[in-house]
Design brief:
This protein has 175 residues and is α+β, with helices and mostly antiparallel strands. It contains three helices and eleven strands; from the N terminus they run βββββββββββααα. Its EC number is 3.6.1.15, 3.6.1.6. Its cofactor is Mg(2+).
């Protein structure tokens, strides 16, 4: 698999199960890329929604993508600490165009004190029925929610102390 080079810019593209483009983040800086992990960063980057509307992110963020896990993690650096937004999604793929994944609606929001909320269960259920998610996919996604929550409780991966701050320091060297 092709991997982006550290320091290069990449676009991030999110799709839905039916193949429709969902959202695009422009100009994320690649901090680390292997065949299994991509860590990127952005700050005040433009995001384009599927309907063409655009908005700009409000704070620096470190993005963690894995080629084997069915989730990705965004650590946002805010004044009151690091807030995490975790998308339950397909593992990523990367080609010369962008880093790509399928967003499966379910999200986990993790607060600086490591408490969390599971979000968008109604949206997931609606899309599961409309797009005919196979039973095996539903099981994979729910198993990965549990796996992700173990990472949160164990402070593993991006939830480890200093993970986000350390990668943010690296990001600042590319600015």
């Amino acid at each position: 698999m092709v991997t982006p080079g550290a320091g290069s810019k990449m676009q991030i593209q999110s799709y839905k199960h039916n193949g429709q483009l969902h959202r695009i983040w422009e100009n994320s800086t690649v901090l680390k890329a292997t065949e299994t992990i991509v860590i990127g960063a952005n700050d005040r980057t433009q995001v384009t929604e599927s309907d063409g509307r655009t908005w700009v992110t409000r704070e620096p963020a470190i993005c963690y993508f894995h080629a084997k896990h069915w989730f990705n993690i965004i650590g946002m650096l805010r004044d009151d600490g690091i807030h995490y937004y975790c998308n339950i999604s397909s593992p990523f793929v990367y080609d010369d165009e962008a880093l790509k994944y399928i967003d499966y609606d379910l999200d986990v929001k993790v607060y600086p004190d490591m408490t969390y909320d599971l979000l968008d269960e109604d949206e997931y259920e609606d899309h599961r029925q409309k797009m005919n998610y196979p039973v095996v996919l539903d099981r994979i996604l729910h198993n990965n929610i549990e796996y992700l929550l173990r990472w949160v409780r164990q402070r593993k991966g991006p939830f480890a102390p200093d993970f986000i701050d350390g990668w943010y320091e690296r990001y600042l060297t590319y600015r």
